[in-house]
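Fold tokens
===========
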Amino acid sequence: MRAKFEKLCREAQIKITEAISEIDGKATFQEDAWVRTNGGGGMSRVLKDGAVFEKAGVNLSVVYGSMPQEALQAATERGVDRAKGMAPGERVPFFACGLSSVMHPKNPMCPTMHFNYRYFETDGGVWWFGGGTDITPSYVNEDDMNHFHGTLKKVCDNHDEKFYPEFKAWADRYFQIKHRGETRGLGGIFFDDLNDRDPDTIFEFSKECLNNVINAYGPIITKHKDDAFTPKQKEWQLMRRGRYVEFNLVYDRGTVFGLKTGGRIESILMSLPETARWEYDHQPAEGSPEADFIDACKNPREW
């Protein structure tokens, strides 16, 4: 499974970056191969200052070695014991492979998108899959959200009709910015510690999720990349990016795992936008599109 999942991630990285480059039409992804001192390495592909995307990154990580038990705990669903049977303080031998991405478009009518799909093993024979795809617009566009969530639901339904409602609700919980009382964006799907069926079955689900990233996201960007917008709408987008930064630095499981295991800092922080904004005590006007977006973040909707 280690080699199989790594091959999937390498192929998906190439396909997704080629598709995003084509949508952008100006910039191309630059490759940055890196080696992890404690075992493994990866390939970062990053596009900057494109015609459509301010920054887009797709990062492959294949790492192994040993880690503290608290780092393993940070990488899994809270409360799940993946170091069972090991002595307190004993380091956990592990293998982890994942493909993660964040796309930050320039136009505030184009949403940010994130995905991450990963496979973990420990030498003790414990394994699990995790991942998800989610979207963070600055404004509510129901047609866009119906397309995005509808694409994810179709993928989920191909494997288990319980997946979409369960993983959609999980995303709404996971991407909660607790100190703000709102979600980072308008959700998607998220799952972790998935090992309740044959690993090849879960692999096929992860594969179809990766193969539909562009189908879910690409048409939305193509539709809105040339939309007109005002300076105030751009400021709002930057404020929402500020929320994005807050979640990623405080709560994101991948960020915490990377920092606790001595990961490569450029790869860990690849998800952050180049520009963001924090405005003191900003309150959207009642009845405005911005207020409607905040309501959707405080009260997750079904699409």
